Amino acid sequence: MEVASFLSDKASTISVVEKEAVPFQEALGPQVGGVAMKMLQGRGVKFYMKSQVSELRGEDGKVAEAILDSGKKLPADVVVVGIGVSPASEFLKGSPFALDSRGAVLVDLLMKTNVSRVFAAGDVAAFPVTLLGGERIGIYHWQVAQAHGHVAALSMLKKQSPLHTVPFFWTVLLGSSIRYAGCGKGFTETVVKGSLEEQKFVIFYIKDGYVTAVASLKCDPMVVMVAEALYAGKVISKEEAEGSWTAWLEMSQTESK
Ligand SMILES: Cc1cc2nc3c(=O)[nH]c(=O)nc-3n(C[C@H](O)[C@H](O)[C@H](O)COP(=O)(O)OP(=O)(O)OC[C@H]3O[C@@H](n4cnc5c(N)ncnc54)[C@H](O)[C@@H]3O)c2cc1C
């Protein structure tokens, strides 16, 4: 999506092929994904959703077309493949290290593995996420990897300082930042402030009646403020997200990209 956005005023035709119904669906949910899609559609980017590339064809080492699983052929001069992430931990399979079903190395809040004096940090680690009641998952953000590294280094120095961070992620599309804090995995509903149609909003992700994550577009500094509240241990109910955030939203009108 970032590449499509960057090239949208440079390339004559851009096609995005995506397995899900909207881009960013797993990370940001269908509402934010839908907005991102609309933003790029407004610049002429074409989307082929619930589709996969089954073949790339070309000559002399140069790509000429991408064939989708539907059989559709997309002429192409350049193909950018977003492969995603999976832990490079095959060499640990069958070893004493505890891994989850994706192959991520299980750690505690000190980034300790189950093997004495061995630590893991970053994308390869599945760690207890406070916002998910301690469920151990991987969160693939640059900021999280840095926080992990910090804690792991302190643990190695026997200066125990349990991980305390709120995951934070951002991306830029057409010059506007989508910001995201928390961990919305398994959210069951959302509260939207502002307007998805007008592409200016704050969206709260709710699980079991409480805010587990927040995302925004052109409503700075809302996400940072919510991240700070979550970091300080504040539990934000769905009702609070619905009701008492208007003042914060008004504050955020001082804008933002
Ligand atoms: C396309 C893409 C876009 C992204 N965009 C964003 C973004 O916009 N914002 C954001 O916050 N995050 C983003 N991320 C995620 C972010 O890059 C990662 O969360 C972060 O880089 C993780 O850091 P890390 O040190 O854990 O792993 P990595 O940066 O992956 O580093 C792991 C290193 O270990 C090496 N390695 C692997 N196996 C072995 C081995 N057996 N022996 C020795 N070395 C080994 C690898 O070669 C690699 O250099 C993106 C990721 C990708 C792939």
TrEMBL record:
The reply to whether Oxidoreductase figures as a keyword in the UniProt entry is: yes
Single GO cellular component term: cytoplasm
Which UniProt keywords are present, listed alphabetically?
FAD, Flavoprotein, Oxidoreductase
> What Gene3D superfamilies does the database record attribute to this sequence?
3.30.390.30, FAD/NAD(P)-binding domain
One term of GO molecular function? oxidoreductase activity, acting on NAD(P)H
A Pfam family assignment:
Reductase_C
Q: Which residue intervals define the domain FAD/NAD(P)-binding in the entry?
A: 1-149
- Segments forming domain Reductase C-terminal: 168-239
Q: Hey, which family's this protein in? A: Belongs to the FAD-dependent oxidoreductase family.
Q: What is this protein called?
A: Apoptosis-inducing factor 3-like isoform X4
Q: Which gene encodes it?
A: LOC102388632
